[in-house]
Amino acid sequence: MATGNHSLMTRNARVQRILSLEEDDLQALCESVDAAILDGGGFGWLQPQGRQVLERYFRGLLLVPERMLFAIRLDGVIVGGAQLIRAPRNNELQAMCVTLAHLFVAPYARKRGLGAALLQEVENAARNMGFRVLNADVLQTQTAAIALFNKAGFQIWGRHPFYARVGDELVSGLFLTKCLDNTPPFLSAKTSNEQEASHTP
């Protein structure tokens, strides 16, 4: 399996950028995704998709230039992942921004700090690649993910009242952002936003 240059060790866990997938890794990745879907956390799917669908999804994803796949391993086995999605080439106005999507850790690997480690490494990778703004969005019901983003310094800037439909219920969504650049003009805008937030009742 080919990986990028960014890696983070935390106890017996490691985060890597995935450039290709061998059979064992693909199997572990698909199993972890289906487990996360069953637990209500991921990828927009409401039901587990099975190996064939997920294999096509991930093999196709690796061919898309605007998408970067990251995985976290526990004892060498993939148990979670995340994606960075850059703006298309025609969107030069937002070339400085990158979107974090589909961050998850399988239920059987939680309570070990892996989500925080994965988020930190993906953020570091985005910064090292020159991106200055990291955006994300989550279901308002995903309280653990929201707490994770808050702890990492993300700001909630908006709420979508009709973000998703789960069964017969509409679920709100939250939009978050984090500035990765502490130089002007980002520093002044960041300071202004923080002061504004501190004065909001």
UniProtKB/TrEMBL annotation:
Superkingdom to which the source organism belongs: Bacteria
N-acetyltransferase domain: residues covered: 16-177
Entries under CDD domains matching the protein: NAT_SF (cd04301)
Keyword Repressor: no
Signal peptide: none
PROSITE patterns reported in the protein's UniProt record: GNAT
Class in the EC hierarchy, top level: isomerase
Keyword entries, A-Z: Acyltransferase, Isomerase, Transferase
A GO molecular function held by the record: 1-(5-phosphoribosyl)-5-[(5-phosphoribosylamino)methylideneamino]imidazole-4-carboxamide isomerase activity
EC number of the protein: 5.3.1.16
InterPro entries hit by this protein: Acyl_CoA_acyltransferase, Bact_Acetyltransf, GNAT_dom
PANTHER family named in the record: AMINOALKYLPHOSPHONATE N-ACETYLTRANSFERASE-RELATED-RELATED
Protein name as catalogued: Phosphoribosylformimino-5-aminoimidazole carboxamide ribotide isomerase
Protein encoded by which gene: hisA
